[in-house]
């Protein structure tokens, strides 16, 4: 006999209601069925899960452990069923660092107003596809290359690059920094989700590089003063932090902002989301300040 969800639901119902009779009412079955289901659970586990007397019911040591796991598993199953049932009434937009930068709030408000039947959820995931490859979102905002065999995508806007430096760095007093100037500094690069690579500079003229794998580590390295960072303006919008200053970068191409989605069975609201994002970037009239 295999462990079944009905076994776990029965155990939870008995403990929560305090009796077999009330558990039967809760589950919509007979009291005899509750007794048989509990016996089947104990047979599968090879251990008693409840201390039963004429006046009380309490979990055994094993029962306490099983009960905790049962609650977790049943909650996961309920979430799965709810997610499948709600389906296209929710749109999950993933991103690795900064969503749509300075346009994020406007996107959220416009979406809520124009698509009230489709709940928008922004999900930050520290992966190159913003969680799309991992299945945690329906579409994602990315600022780097992606697997075109698995995903389709389009550019919705451009963002200028900025230089992130420690607030007490001499460069913090300047309005802009040239790309060639950075060759004399150490540059911190997020290997997993960052938009900067050593190829931004010509071969033989590249700066020293330090790698991180997370936005918080990236910011910490810059705040220490030992490195500088190059990033789209959206990072400055989403991650304003004491001890770090962002300045315009001269001599580097802007970063394309792309929305990507699965080639197979895309979410029905994908086209609407792409159109809205592109409209917001276009309305700005320049590369997004975010």
Element layout with pairings:
Layout: H1 5-17, H2 20-27, H3 31-45, E1 50-52, E2 57-59, H4 61-86, E3 90-95, H5 104-114, E4 119-124, E5 139-142, E6 151-159, E7 161-166, E8 176-178, E9 186-190, E10 208-212, H6 215-223, E11 229-232, H7 233-238, E12 244-250, E13 255-262, H8 270-284
Parallel strand pairs: 3-4, 3-5, 8-12, 9-10
Antiparallel strand pairs: 1-2, 5-13, 6-13, 7-11, 7-12
Structure description:
The chain has 290 residues and is an alpha/beta fold. The protein has 3 domains: 5-86, Arc Repressor Mutant, subunit A (Orthogonal Bundle); 87-158 and 255-284, Periplasmic binding protein-like II (D-Maltodextrin-Binding Protein, domain 2, 3-Layer(aba) Sandwich), CATH 3.40.190; 161-250, D-Maltodextrin-Binding Protein, domain 2. The chain has helices at 5-17, 20-27, 31-45, 61-86, 104-114, 215-223, 233-238, 270-284; strands at 50-52, 57-59, 90-95, 119-124, 139-142, 151-159, 161-166, 176-178, 186-190, 208-212, 229-232, 244-250, 255-262. The strands form 4 sheets. It has a 5-stranded mixed β-sheet with strand order 4-3-5-13-6, covered by helices on one side. A 4-stranded mixed β-sheet has the order 8-12-7-11. Helix 1 (5-17) crosses helix 2 (20-27) and helix 1 (5-17) crosses helix 3. The longest helix is centred in the N-terminal third of the chain and has 26 residues, at 61-86. The chain is elongated. It starts with a helix and ends in a 6-residue tail after the last helix. The model has no long low-confidence stretch (mean pLDDT 91).
């Amino acid at each position: 006999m295999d462990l079944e969800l009905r076994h776990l639901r029965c155990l939870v119902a008995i403990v929560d209601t305090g009796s077999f009779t009330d558990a039967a009412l809760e589950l919509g079955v007979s009291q005899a069925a509750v007794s048989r289901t509990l016996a089947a659970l104990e047979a599968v586990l090879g251990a008693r899960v409840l201390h039963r007397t004429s006046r009380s019911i309490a979990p055994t040591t094993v029962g306490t452990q099983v009960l905790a796991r049962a609650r977790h598993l049943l909650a996961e199953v309920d979430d799965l069923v709810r997610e499948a049932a709600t389906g296209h009434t929710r749109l999950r937009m993933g991103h690795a660092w900064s969503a749509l930068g300075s346009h994020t709030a406007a996107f959220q408000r416009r979406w809520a107003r124009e698509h009230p039947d489709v709940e928008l959820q922004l999900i930050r995931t520290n992966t190159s596809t913003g969680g799309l490859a991992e299945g945690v979102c329906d579409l994602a905002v990315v600022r780097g290359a992606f697997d075109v065999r698995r995903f389709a995508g389009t550019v919705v806007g451009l963002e200028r690059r900025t230089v992130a430096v420690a607030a007490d760095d001499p460069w913090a007093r300047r309005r802009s920094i040239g790309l060639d100037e950075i060759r004399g500094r150490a540059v911190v690069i997020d290997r997993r989700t960052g938009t900067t690579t050593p190829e931004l500079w010509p071969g033989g003229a590249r700066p020293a590089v330090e790698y991180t794998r997370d936005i918080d580590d990236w910011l910490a390295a810059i705040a220490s003063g030992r490195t500088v960072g190059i990033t789209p303006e959206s990072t400055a919008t989403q991650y304003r932090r004491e001890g770090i200053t962002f300045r315009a970068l001269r001599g580097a191409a802007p970063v394309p902002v792309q929305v990507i989605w699965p080639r197979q069975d895309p979410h029905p609201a994908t086209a609407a989301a792409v159109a809205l994002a592109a409209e917001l970037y276009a309305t700005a009239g320049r590369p997004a300040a975010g």
